[in-house]
Task: structure prediction
Amino acid sequence: MNDSWQRYADEHIRTVDTMSAVLLFAMFLFGSELGIPDGPRPDAVGPTIALAAVSCAALFWQRSRPRTVVTVTASAAAWAGALGHLLTPLMLGPLMLALYRLAVHTGRGTARRYFFASVVLVVTTATAVDPAHHPWPFRTVGPAAWLLLPVVAGNAVRLRDAYLEAVQARAEYAERSREEEARHRVAEERMRIARELHDVVAHHLALAHAQVGTAAHLARTHPDHVQRILTELAGTTSSALCEMKGTVGLLRQSDDPGTPLAPSPGLAQLAELTGAFAAAGLTVTVTTEGEKRPLSPGVDLTAYRIVQEALTNVSKHATTRSAHVRLRYAYDRLTVTVTDDGASTAPAVNPTPAPTPGHGFGLIGMRERARSVGGALRAGHRVEGGFEVTTDLPLYPSAPQPQERTP
Result:
């Protein structure tokens, strides 16, 4: 009921103001006939009707000029008291509505000042000029109390509207924040999938390139070994296709048909990784220091991908045919070190200089991976020769990380 009336009032403001003015005009005239029993009645019908008309006509501007309307209605109420009328709520109706609208549309300080000014004007006039000699409570306490009610009600409505507006603003902000967070998570997921594709493609293409180069070199001197290398090359390309298919499969919807996701790779698959590099002509030794500790899926995958990328860089850029991977477990951290001595122990296929520290997308990707789980990565040339990549990773991420899975 209240909602429907409020909706109607908001949609038909002019109609509501007209009805209010007409009703208050009738109440003003009716109130002018009231008085103290057996007391004198003012004989001023014409001025009373004029005051009612002026006071109620001013209400048409109560929303646009509330201060002016309060001034006009307060003057009319004071004049009516000077004529000897009893200042009841019926005669104070236009002023009460004007004070209410002023309290709703302005601040508390403005409503307070106009309230006190209206009370002083009305009470002073009714007390100083009172031909009917009404009792003093009817000239002082009564008008002040009646005029206080609309100010209190108007302030309450204004505070309620401000509260509802603040609640709505917070709800809209929360909705925008959820949408922005969702977009941010989508962007992060896309970056993660792109990084996975980069690692998979770079690793397997580097291995395939090394295996093809080795096969071409051995075809002239040891043709009997070429068949074995070609078989291993077929396995490398098949593995690359499977990993790429699984990684791109993450982009499918949950209801799309497809094979289930396999566990993400980790240090448990380090033997298979080093075996693939061995087939490409790079001998990798792995040593472990300290007691092995369980790793979170994110840290396990990060360590595996960093070792994979570091060994790929060795295979692509270094002139050595050997590399060393050292895993050192501490109380709360895992240190992964990948080194090569830079010495040439066999002819290299398309040898290229070792990467410069801080340059190249491989090092950037490894640093980003380490940072994503709260770790750090250092890379640079060794004093004794060769290149070294060292990564410090927490056993568990320092902040919650989205679980990364590779089919």
The radius of gyration is 44 Å.
